[in-house]
């Protein structure tokens, strides 16, 4: 396993193809302009590594992310808010990666923390953690992707209610809303998230990447156009070594050994 670190973002890359990105900005891993730029650089590093087959996004010290740094956001200048809007570039970068991104939510994912979690493909949350968008209590609204991704996930009525009331959902409530994939014991969040990251990293990387691309591109696209893109992807996956390995393993009655190619 190799590791790199900056002031507020750490990166560890394992031999199994899992890249772990850690937000490390005590006390609550809040986003600042500096953290945002470091996170974008880190994602670029991960994207350039052909051996990376999944990403685990987590927070340091048993906490995920409480959103934007309140001191930074107290400067109400357009320049500062434009810098903080770069959070949507982070989310976009995660979504565009054609490898799965797993988010480990410990203690809380609030505001911008919830927004970046929604840009991940799989979300695992601790039983005692909270998930929500409290921006309205500051006279704001979730302006870094929350109004868009939350609505896509839960629908217009529920999204408006959650944002307008600033509700902080329990883990079980978040699961009921479809905002997370699994609720686990607080002390097993990282264990379970790593298990999933390892599982997906051992899968047919190209096929999983194509699935991800097609699913996200389906929003706002008419069905015939989506089916045409799906057809292109079907013929693209035919050229992969993993497809050949999958079929060979099936015929030989053994587990497949996917290489990610």
Itemize the secondary structure elements and their pairings.
Layout: E1 2-5, E2 9-13, E3 18-23, H1 33-48, E4 54-59, H2 70-73, H3 78-84, H4 87-96, E5 101-105, E6 108-110, H5 112-118, E7 122-126, E8 130-132, H6 146-154, H7 156-165, E9 168-170, H8 171-176, E10 182-184, H9 189-201, H10 205-217, H11 223-237, H12 241-251
Parallel strand pairs: 3-4, 4-5, 5-7, 6-8, 7-10
Antiparallel strand pairs: 1-2, 2-3, 8-9
Helix pairs in contact: 1-4, 4-5, 6-7, 10-11
Keywords: Lyase
GO molecular function, one term: lyase activity
Protein name: 3-hydroxybutyryl-CoA dehydratase
Describe the structure.
This protein is an alpha/beta fold and 261 residues long. It folds into two domains: 2-201, 2-enoyl-CoA Hydratase, Chain A, domain 1, CATH 3.90.226.10; 205-251, Orthogonal Bundle (Lyase 2-enoyl-coa Hydratase, Chain  A, domain 2), CATH 1.10.12. It is 46% helix and 16% strand. The protein is built from twelve helices and ten strands. The strands form two sheets. Strands 1-2-3-4-5-7-10 form a seven-stranded mixed β-sheet, with helices on both faces. Helix 1 runs parallel beside helix 4 and helix 4 (87-96) packs parallel to helix 5. It is globular and about 60 Å long. It starts with a strand and ends in a 10-residue tail after the last helix. The mean pLDDT is 95. Keywords: Lyase. InterPro entries: ClpP/crotonase-like_dom_sf, Enoyl-CoA_hydra/iso, Enoyl-CoA_hydra_C. GO terms for molecular function: lyase activity. This is 3-hydroxybutyryl-CoA dehydratase. It comes from mine drainage metagenome.
């Amino acid at each position: 396993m190799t590791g790199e670190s900056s002031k507020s973002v750490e990166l560890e890359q394992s031999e199994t193809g899992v890249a772990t990105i850690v937000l490390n900005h005590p006390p609550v891993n809040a986003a600042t302009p500096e953290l945002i730029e470091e996170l974008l650089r880190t994602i670029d590093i991960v994207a350039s590594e052909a051996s990376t087959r999944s990403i685990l996004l987590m927070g340091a010290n048993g906490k995920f992310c409480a959103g934007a740094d309140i001191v930074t956001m107290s400067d109400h200048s357009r320049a500062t808010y434009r810098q903080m809007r770069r959070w949507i570039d982070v989310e976009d970068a995660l979504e565009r990666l054609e490898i799965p991104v797993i988010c480990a939510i410990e203690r809380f994912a609030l505001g911008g923390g919830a927004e970046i979690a929604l840009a991940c493909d799989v979300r695992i949350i601790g039983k005692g953690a909270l998930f929500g968008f409290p921006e309205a209590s500051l006279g704001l609204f979730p302006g870094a992707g929350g109004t868009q991704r939350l609505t896509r996930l839960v629908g217009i009525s529920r999204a408006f209610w959650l944002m307008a009331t600033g509700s902080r959902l329990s883990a079980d409530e978040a699961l009921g809303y479809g905002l997370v994939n699994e609720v686990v014991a607080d002390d097993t969040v990282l264990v379970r998230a790593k298990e999933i990251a390892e599982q997906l990293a051992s899968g047919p990387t190209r096929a999983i990447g194509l699935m991800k691309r097609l699913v996200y591109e389906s929003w706002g696209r008419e069905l015939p156009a989506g089916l045409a893109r799906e057809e292109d992807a079907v013929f693209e996956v035919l050229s992969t070594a993993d497809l050949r390995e999958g079929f060979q393993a099936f015929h030989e009655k053994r587990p497949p050994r996917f290489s990610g190619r």
